[in-house]
Specification:
This protein has 171 residues and is an alpha+beta fold. Helices cover 37% and strands 35% of the residues. It is built from 5 helices and 6 strands. Strand 3 and strand 4 form a beta hairpin.
């Protein structure tokens, strides 16, 4: 009887054991993935080295901004055009990676952009942030989901509201 109880206890314990997690990604691969995502910011957008897009992006790369965008920016050529537009609008942009996290085939960058926006009303200093989630496949960036603090940027770009003159009641 004791052996049956021990056997049943073992079966119950085994059936309740947690599922074995998938193999961990080697640290060297995680570091290589982080470096790839950082090159996207540093070399393409901050330095303006557009040729890097051909080197680090998959041919069918897709960039979703906002993340649920139905028609993403695609391919290295789309990124080159976006980088050209961003660099023209923010003439002196600096991208700072505030956090870099890698897990499996994903890299998350929390970043801050500072620069001077070239608006119709004149130059406007701005600072705003965003979060990028990159998916790496075969040593290339395959996808990017990006969320930016558009409200903060819009507030900084908006002209200050005119202050109405004080109205003095008639005597």
């Amino acid at each position: 009887l004791l052996s049956v109880v021990v056997l049943l206890s073992s079966v119950v314990l085994i059936s309740r054991s947690p599922t074995i997690a998938q193999e961990a990604t080697p640290a060297a691969d995680l570091e290589a993935n982080k470096a790839l995502a950082q090159r996207f910011h540093d070399e393409i957008f901050e330095q303006g080295n557009l040729a890097v897009a051909d080197e680090i992006l998959a041919p069918d790369f897709a960039w979703y901004n906002p993340p649920d965008q139905a028609d993403p920016t695609t391919g290295p050529e789309g990124v080159k055009q976006s980088a050209t537009d961003v660099r023209a609008f923010f003439s002196d942009l600096v991208l700072t990676d505030d956090d870099v996290i890698a897990e499996g085939d994903r890299v998350v960058l929390r970043w801050t952009l500072t620069g001077t926006a070239q608006t119709e009303a004149g130059p406007v200093p701005v600072r705003f942030s965003g979060i990028d989630i990159f998916r790496i496949e075969d040593g290339k960036i395959a996808e990017l989901w990006q969320l930016t603090d558009d409200l903060s940027l819009e507030e900084q770009l908006s002209a200050p509201a005119a202050t109405p003159a004080a109205v003095t009641p008639a005597a």
